[in-house]
Amino acid sequence: MKKRELESYCGDVSQIFGVQPCILDNGRDKGTRAYLVDNGAGITCTILRDKCFAIPSLKFKGLNIGFLCKNGISSPEFFQEEGTRGFLRNFEGGFLTTCGLTYFGTPTVREGQPYGLHGVISNTPMENASAEVLWKGDDACIEVRGQAREGYLFGPNLVIRKKIEIPVGGNLIRMHDTVENKGFEKEILMLLYHFNYGYPFLDESCSIYTNYNFIRPRDSGSQGRLDHLDSFAAPMSGFEEVVAYRTMSDKAVTQGRSLVWNRKRQVAVRMTLNADQLPVMNEWQSPRAGDYVLGMEPGTGTVGGLEGTEKAGLTEYIEPGEIRKFDITVEFLDDDELIREAVSEFSKEEN
C-alpha cells in the first residue's frame, strides 16, 4: 500500500507500526531507557538505549526468539567488572548483547590489569541516540542509531557507532556498525555480537547450520561433544556448557552464514555477515535446565579472551584514526520453501 493511501486509513500510523521511547521501572531494570519497536509484520522487540542497544526481547509473529537470563533486564548501574560473575550478574542474555571493544571472553590479568568477562561496552549507555520511522518514497523503515565510547585516562579511546534498521512490513533486521580509534596509539580490537536463542523457538527439534566449518573446542570438556554442534538437546539438570570456536577453512569465503531451524514450529532464523569483518563464529550450547540457551556469536576473536585469541593467531588491531565496519543481517523465515532453500545452500557447500 502506498504511503498516502495508508495514511487515509489511519489517524496515526503508529497504530500499525512504529517505535516508542520508554523508561523501564521494575526491580533491577529501574531507570533503563529503551525503545519499543513494532514493524507491523510480526517483528516486535525492545532495544536498550542504556546498554549499547542490547535487544533483551524479540518476537517474530508472537513467537519468542531470544533467551532471557534469570537476572531479567538489569540497569547498567548494577554492573561490576569482577572476574566472571560481575558480568553474569548483569547479563540478561537477550536476543543480542554487544561485547568488547578492546577485550571480551575469558577473564585474565595482564601487567597487573584485570580484564573481566566480555568487556564493558555492553553496560555503556548510548550517546546522541535517536529512533524514528524514516520514509523513502512509499517504503518505511524503523531506524535506531547512536554511539558509545570505551576509554579512560591514559587508556584507549574507541567509539562504536551503531545503526539498527528494521524495515516496516519486512522479516529482517539490518545492523551497520563502525568502530573508530579516536586515540593516537594502536589498540587491540575485540568485538563480539552475542546472539542468543531461547525457548520456545529453541528446543530439541532445532537444527543448526553454519559455513564457519573449521572447529576447535574451547576446553577439554567441550572436546568430546563437538559431534553434536548441529543439533540441540532437551533440558538437562547440571549440564556443563559446550563452547566451540568456528572459522572458515577456506579464507576466500567472505560471506558468513548461520541458520537455526526449528523443524517442529517451521520457523528459522538466518544470519548473514561479512567473514572478513567477523572471522570467528563462537558457538555456545547450554541445554542446562533453567539456563537453556544457544549462542551463535560472531566476533573478531574467540571467547577464549585475549589469551585464547592470541593463541589462535586471531588478534586484530585498529590503528589511530582507523574506522572498521561491521554489517549483519538477521532474517526470520516461516515459509517452508524458503527455509528448505536456505538449508539446501549449506548442503551444496558441503558437497
Automatic annotation (TrEMBL):
<dbReference type="Pfam" id="PF14486">
    <property type="entry name" value="DUF4432"/>
</dbReference>
<dbReference type="InterPro" id="IPR027839">
    <property type="entry name" value="DUF4432"/>
</dbReference>
<protein>
    <submittedName>
        <fullName>Aldose 1-epimerase family protein</fullName>
    </submittedName>
</protein>
<dbReference type="GO" id="GO:0030246">
    <property type="term" value="F:carbohydrate binding"/>
</dbReference>
<dbReference type="InterPro" id="IPR014718">
    <property type="entry name" value="GH-type_carb-bd"/>
</dbReference>
